Amino acid sequence: MLYLLFTVALVMTGGCNRKTIYHHYEHTPLAGWEKNDTLVYQLPAAKERAVVQRDVELRVSADYPFRSLHLIVEQIIYPSRHTRLDTLECELVTPEGEMLGNGVSLYQYWFRLPDISLNEGDSLCIGIRHDMKREILPGIADVGVRLTAY
To answer: Is residue 34 within 8 Å of residue 68, measured between CB atoms?
Structure first.
């Protein structure tokens, strides 16, 4: 029995090597997120050198008219001004019309970006905009960014 408890404790602490260093949502009007409206996330300076896992999170209503969402994610690391541009294709709805996310009235989604390395003192500015043909995109309630260091 003691061996089992020790094993469970060891497994549970193994996942504790990661820590959330930033997690924030920006709201968009449910009536429509304008194509030229870039959501901006300003992260404070890193306290130590770290490899950072980056996730984009979405809250989407059933009113969203498409199966997927294309996002442009631009990141600038300061003070080096190193810029990285990522394009995400977010699959939200099955071909049968079922939402793939978790939820009832708003559906939650998570999409991973490639990891980046930050040095001590680096800060990060992230801008996210949609890249859909429609100028005003209804049904996107919130767009979030989560950074986890490990």
So the answer is: no
